[in-house]
Amino acid sequence: MIRLVNLAKGVKNMTTIKDVAKRAGVSRTTVSRVLNDNGYVSQEAREQVLKAVQEMGYIPSAHAKTMRTKRSGVIGVILPRISTETASRVVNGIEQELAENGYQILLTNTQLKPEKEIENIKLLRSRQVDGIILLATNRNEELLQTIKETNSPFVALGQELEGVTSVVYDDYNAAFSIAESLISKGHQRIGFIGVQETDHAVGVLRKEGYKDAMKKHNLSIDEEWIQYGDFTFESGYEAAERLTSGTSMPSAILAVTDRMAIGALGCLKEKDIRVPEDMAVFGIGASDLSKHVTPALSTVDYFNEDAGRQTAQLILKQLKGKSLENQKIKLSYRLIERDSV
Amino acid sequence: MIRLVNLAKGVKNMTTIKDVAKRAGVSRTTVSRVLNDNGYVSQEAREQVLKAVQEMGYIPSAHAKTMRTKRSGVIGVILPRISTETASRVVNGIEQELAENGYQILLTNTQLKPEKEIENIKLLRSRQVDGIILLATNRNEELLQTIKETNSPFVALGQELEGVTSVVYDDYNAAFSIAESLISKGHQRIGFIGVQETDHAVGVLRKEGYKDAMKKHNLSIDEEWIQYGDFTFESGYEAAERLTSGTSMPSAILAVTDRMAIGALGCLKEKDIRVPEDMAVFGIGASDLSKHVTPALSTVDYFNEDAGRQTAQLILKQLKGKSLENQKIKLSYRLIERDSV
DNA sequence: CTGAAAGCGCTTACAG
DNA sequence: CTGAAAGCGCTTACAG
Questions:
Q1: CA A309/CA A331 separation, integer angstroms
Q2: Which chain B residue's Cα is nearest to A120?
Q3: Model pTM?
Q4: A171-301 classified as CATH 1.10.760.10
Q5: N or C: fewer beta carbons within 10 Å in chain B?
Q6: Closest Cα of chain A to B213: distance in Å?
Q7: Please, which residues have CB within 8 angstroms of residue A43's CB and are 6 or more apart in sequence?
Q8: Got the DSSP string for A276-296?
Q9: Do the Cβ atoms of A151 and B12 come within 8 Å?
Q10: Which architecture characterizes domain B17-60 according to CATH?
Q11: Interface mutation target, options B14, B36, B83, B237, chain A, most CBs of A under 10 Å
């Protein structure tokens, strides 16, 4: 009995390996062999196949291949936001390293919503990615749980996640170094613009670095000197407003991101507070912006592209079967002092 | 006779629809029906299935589904570079629109190499994307050919491609408007920083807009006033250097991108040429940078996010079977005049 | 309301 | 050196 299985209409019929085989006068097996360059194939058969492929514009179905081999050749990369300089640099690094090794990347975007991180991990799993890189922004329990269930190569970048291979920036020491640098220039009253603590790397570690540097030098911190923003220019602007309208104004500001630092710069300019004479400002991130703003912003370079590359290397190692369950890499950084201090 | 088909080792065995069916005590058909919510399923069967899915953490294989249905639910997006503000805004717009309609996006990156555009189109086809959006940077013949062979929903953004549904910025008029605005402020000697003509939109149309505005107002253009860069800050800097060291220096500069305009600003600052008193500067792109640089850069907003949204809508329409072979959409723009003029 | 079976497009162990 | 056939994990027309 013949049944017609009616597939979606209007779908162009792709040429398949079967068509190529027929045209070349060989079996599908042989076509597969020449395309994947494995197994013995006579010179003649090979030529016929290549010719047919060429003429028919044959493109093998990655899905069929993945399904059969359990390898997709793609690594999923989960970004908090697609639009940031940091993310793009990291992705560039990842892509370079991965492309050299024959992997592609599939980008997804959480729009900074923690629940989307989990959703995206599942999504990537359903697409059978061979590994996942997460640019992490938090460390909540449910996320950790989901990662553990994932059971395939996984590397987190930006936060140290318990039990997960992680590549992290040296947030604590970077902030510590900035504060010390400011102190060495004679500043005793240093204000701080941070972010909420759910982001452990940026929200907690950088703050601790700052606090500990102050403590080391026996400098006290007025509680009004610690302000918070949400990564935006505006929030930096507003934080600077608060820092400069209290009873005891600091002489320097350490903002945990360049964007907030530049927002702060905007506020200072408006209030005619001269930078660096009346107020020194330091950011973190080495954004393009930091270089072109006036006065040029002092900041710290996290070598994001290199971070991406190292993260990719870790995934690659796991792919090769090396278990790195709990490896941690801490990256280095570099202070860049410019006109704002 | 029993054969063992030996799949890649070390691959965790995913739970499949078959496992779920067994656990729930129903057939795969029924499982499929409840998961896709189509066809009749008894309340009891549904509950059993959902329970099993939950307990087993079952995630359906997107590949198997795509293979069977010929629909992947993903739209491929080809970007010239992942790192640009423009690209990220466009992607945000695309993603919003597409997500609302149940599509995901798969991003690829050409690193500005034209041959990679073609390569990426093929790649996306092999991954069975339901449609492709190309942020186009050139219009070479081979590219057009490849697009035509693609034979599935396709929209180009940024360049008008012959025979391809395209969404374009109003490059000609934007440049024209800038020049006229400068002229209306009394400038008669306007310099130009452009890019090579392989990028028709940016390289040709913006230059023509500028030239035609000058012509309309009977202003002649000294050939030294037309300089070229390659989208980088540095090239803008260097172009400005040439513009200010000739025999007849212009009193204003129109740079076709913000980055080059800001590079130019850097050069002017170094040479102590005051902006806007001695030299007005205008860019295009409304980058974050433009707002925060000093003096704040005048520029034109292309509403990139909206462009992304409209592009996505066009893909969506094609997906619904509407043929739009040759539709063209020209987007609007808005001049933003700030301190640099 | 439910299930057996075909088929999507590949790869690969096996037999020749 | 080559091919027939099984099987990857789904969906769906058909029969009950």
A1: 11
A2: B104
A3: 0.89
A4: no
A5: N
A6: 31
A7: none
A8: TTT-EEE-SS--HHHHHBSSP
A9: yes
A10: Orthogonal Bundle (1.10)
A11: B83
